[in-house]
């Protein structure tokens, strides 16, 4: 059969299957949007794969919040949307698909713009499929006063490619033998035939502050960088190990003479009505940026190597003390196993290990 006929049959079959699925009860069990009545949020909720963060304004009664959810068509949620609950501790919600076959548990956390500032990567949270099997891991940090940070990554995007991999073989995974205890391992992966079809040839291992929402049509906008921060970051430090993959590729084709390298950076920026977060299209170019910290001497190293990166304030930029207090500034720390992985340039097998990271800051006097 000619190639064009194969392609035509493929898309015809896809359309027919789509029509059949439209007629059947919906099998999805997702929270699509979240709001909280009253003027209690200092910005939009952060919705991840199975976690939601509610950034609260100071003075909000955290013990009496009534989040309202929009679900995938036909799905139901327990407890019901709009029920008042005490968010002094994270609360669980279970979404059930319209066909009743699938359930998904969400953890909803309410925070007063506080995040931990030391990161040890000891708490790896399993993400499971609809049958309860572990697909991959996310990471969460907490501190002694109750601040929580849910790290984001693009494992969900790699899962979409259909490449068969064990949880520890995903681009972002936990690993033993850290500087202390465990660490995080970031590995650039080949995305297989579907990835090539979508022109997403590799998936760099990444870990960042913010959220990830799968967006096949605009991959660079899938990563939303930043979480509220009510201090001025001054530097961040930690330890890394790195080994570049053997074959560097661009658009899936080997390129001789090029070698992969990792990226470690952080940004601090102001939010406003138009800019709620930064993404892969503007993380280094947005006029809302205040300061940037970025490694300039990354190298291959088999030993744990310390980095200590100062935040460099951009020309003409200042911080408004009232906006800072109100939680109108975001910070994002970002790690990637391939510096141009977002453009699908890099080497499969490039591996970056990260451990014992600390964010330093000051307050406005």
UniProtKB/TrEMBL annotation:
It comes from the Bacteria. Pfam families: PCMD. This is Exported protein. It comes from Bacteroides fragilis (strain ATCC 25285 / DSM 2151 / CCUG 4856 / JCM 11019 / LMG 10263 / NCTC 9343 / Onslow / VPI 2553 / EN-2). The lineage of its organism: Bacteria, Pseudomonadati, Bacteroidota, Bacteroidia, Bacteroidales.
């Amino acid at each position: 059969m000619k190639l064009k006929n194969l392609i035509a049959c493929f898309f015809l079959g896809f359309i027919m299957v789509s029509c059949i699925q439209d007629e059947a009860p919906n099998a999805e069990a997702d929270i699509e949007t979240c709001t909280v009545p009253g003027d209690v949020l200092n910005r939009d909720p952060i919705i991840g794969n199975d976690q939601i963060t509610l950034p609260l304004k100071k003075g909000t009664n955290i013990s009496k919040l009534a989040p309202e959810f929009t679900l995938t068509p036909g799905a139901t949620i327990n407890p019901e949307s709009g029920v008042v609950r005490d968010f002094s501790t994270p609360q669980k919600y279970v979404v059930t698909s319209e066909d009743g076959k699938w359930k998904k548990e969400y953890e909803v956390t309410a925070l007063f713009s506080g995040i931990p500032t030391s990161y040890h990567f000891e708490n790896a949270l399993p993400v499971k499929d609809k049958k309860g099997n572990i697909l991959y891991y996310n990471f969460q940090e907490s501190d002694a006063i109750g601040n929580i940070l849910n790290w984001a990554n693009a494992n969900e995007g790699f899962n979409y490619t259909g490449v068969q991999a064990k949880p520890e073989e995903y681009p972002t995974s936990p690993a033993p033998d850290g500087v202390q205890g465990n660490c995080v391992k970031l590995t650039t992966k080949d995305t297989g035939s579907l990835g090539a079809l979508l022109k997403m040839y590799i998936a760099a291992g990444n870990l960042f502050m913010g959220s990830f929402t799968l967006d096949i049509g605009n991959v660079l906008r899938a990563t939303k960088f930043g979480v509220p921060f009510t201090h001025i970051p001054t530097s961040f430090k930690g330890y890394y190990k790195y080994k570049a993959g053997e074959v560097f590729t661009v658009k899936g084709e080997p390129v001789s003479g090029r070698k992969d390298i990792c990226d470690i950076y952080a940004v601090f920026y102001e939010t406003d009505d138009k800019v709620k977060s930064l993404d892969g299209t503007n993380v280094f170019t947005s006029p809302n940026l205040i300061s940037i910290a970025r490694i300039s001497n990354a190298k291959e190293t088999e030993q744990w190597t310390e980095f200590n990166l100062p935040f460099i304030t951009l020309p003409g930029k200042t911080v408004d003390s009232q906006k800072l207090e109100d939680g109108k500034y975001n910070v994002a720390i970002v790690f990637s196993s391939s510096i141009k992985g977002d453009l699908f340039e890099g080497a499969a097998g490039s591996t970056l290990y990260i451990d014992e990271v600390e964010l330093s800051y000051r307050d406005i006097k």
